[in-house]
């Protein structure tokens, strides 16, 4: 039923302006519209969207809430780092990021957090 429907990642944030600045200036998304106070829709690739909404009591998830598919993860990580984005590193059995913050495998992965502690992933498949 939903196999052909577009999907929008919906992300709770505490401060709309801080979140907008991060997602637009640091990650490079574009504001599509602000349909209500505290709600911002951002355009991402291939017609996908990210919706930010204010939730003052927001507690970030311990899991990844959205993943961006990128053609060259090393270039994406390097470019985002140049914009001041900080990446997470992991050192667990069978799950270790390299010095470039990338988990190598059939799918290459990297993670960052937004100003509210939401975990955002990058994937090169």
- SS content category: alpha+beta
The tally of structural domains comes to 1
Average pLDDT rating = 95
Percent in strands: 35-45%
CATH architecture tag:
Roll
Task: Summarize the structure in words.
With 125 residues, this protein is α+β, with helices and mostly antiparallel strands. The chain contains two helices and ten strands. The strands form three sheets. Strands 1-4-3-2 form a four-stranded mixed beta sheet, covered by helices on one side. It starts with 7 loop residues before the first strand and ends with a strand.
Helices and strands, with pairings:
Elements: E1 8-13, H1 16-26, E2 30-36, E3 39-43, E4 49-54, E5 64-69, H2 73-82, E6 87-88, E7 91-92, E8 95-96, E9 108-113, E10 119-124
Parallel strand pairs: 1-4, 5-10
Antiparallel strand pairs: 2-3, 3-4, 6-9, 7-8, 9-10
What attributes does this structure have?
125 residues, alpha+beta, 2,3-Dihydroxybiphenyl 1,2-Dioxygenase, domain 1, 4-stranded mixed sheet, globular
Q: Could you give a quick summary of the protein structure above?
A:
This protein is an alpha+beta fold and about 120 residues long.
């Amino acid at each position: 039923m939903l196999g052909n429907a577009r999907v929008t990642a919906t992300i709770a944030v505490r401060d709309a302006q801080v979140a907008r600045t991060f997602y637009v200036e640091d990650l490079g998304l574009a504001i599509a519209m602000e349909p209500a106070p505290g709600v911002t829709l951002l355009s991402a690739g291939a017609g996908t969207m990210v919706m930010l909404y204010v939730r003052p009591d927001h507690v970030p998830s311990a899991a990844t809430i959205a993943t961006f598919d990128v053609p060259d993860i090393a270039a994406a990580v390097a470019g985002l780092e140049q914009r001041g984005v900080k990446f997470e590193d992991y050192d667990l059995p069978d799950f270790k990021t390299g010095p470039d913050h990338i988990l190598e495998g059939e799918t290459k992965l990297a993670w960052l957090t937004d100003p509210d502690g939401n975990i955002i992933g990058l994937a090169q498949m």
